[in-house]
Amino acid sequence: MTRLKSRFLVMATLVGWFSTLSGCSFLRQAKNDEMAMARQVSLRGEQALRQGHWLEAEQLYNRAIQHASSDHRAHRGYAEALWNQRAYDTAINHMEKALKFSGEDPKVMVRLGEMYLEKGYLPQSKHCAERAIATDHMLARAWALKGKALFRAGELNAALAGFHRAVSLQNQFPSVQLEMAQIYRMQQRPRRALATLDVLSRTYGKQDIPQEVLYLQGLALKDIGRYEESVEQLAQAANQGQPDAKLLFELSESQWLAGNPANARLSLLEALSHRPDHHPSRQLLARIEDNRQALTANMPR
User: Fold this and answer.
1) Distance between CA atoms of 92 and 90, rounded to whole angstroms?
2) Which stretches within the chain are classed as H helix?
3) Span 41-103 CATH architecture
């Protein structure tokens, strides 16, 4: 009887053991199936993101998260879709989750830092950059992020150091090169600004140089007294899209300094048609009018 009872216990134990294994295997398979489904839906969300279909991408990534709540790719894509619909706080929340579930991937860290930066959370942005650099010191975007956070905090020399490191790792980095040029101008180093912009402009075709590059080149040329060349660059910038009052004012001032008050006046009138309250334009227009009246009064009769 004791032997029979012993056999029964052994059989019961084996059955329980196999049942547990079977249950674990079933749960593991179900989890794998859910993860596979999340990946498939995320791929469709990624395609929608590339096409700029933000709402569709949001819906797809939301479905992916329902399948696998710890899938960092789904949270990251969901964050990007929300960000492009200006749901900034929720987007940041999901990018923070993406960072956690990715095991603190430095690329995800940098993207989160970029979001912090755009919202003006400078300490958080800088912290993300430094953590990413500590993990991967060859990541150019991390150095760029650090430089941008420092620039916005007013730490110009430290920002330049970060930017230089970024361009040493990725020599074509337009957003970084533009900010470097801005810092050089702020430090009254226009020739360095111009040299940086010249390197950047050579990466584009002659007709494809972005408006902001042309604009900063024009300002740097004006800073060093090359007024006619400044007019050329600023006029080219003004011809690209709709110029704002600030650009037209800078063009007008260069035209005035180059000895062409008639064109300067026309540029100012156009600037004031965009922004009638633009004080620098009104001031320069008054100077031009006063000068014209003085010349007229002094003309022989």
Assistant:
1) 5
2) 2-50, 54-67, 72-83, 88-101, 106-118, 122-135, 140-152, 156-169, 174-186, 190-201, 211-223, 227-238, 245-257, 261-274, 279-298
3) Alpha Horseshoe (1.25)
Neighbour-count burial of 271, counting CB atoms closer than 10 A to its CB (0-12 exposed, 13-18 middle, 19+ buried)? buried
Would you say how long the chain is, in residues?
301
- pLDDT tens, 194-243? 999 999 999 998 889 999 999 999 999 999 999 999 999 999 999 988 89
Q: What is the pTM of this model?
A: 0.84
Token pair in block for residue 128: 């993300």
Domain ranges of the chain: 41-103
Burial class (CB in 10 A: 0-12, 13-18, 19+), 205: exposed
Residue 86 Rama label (left phi>0; alpha psi -120 to 50; beta): left
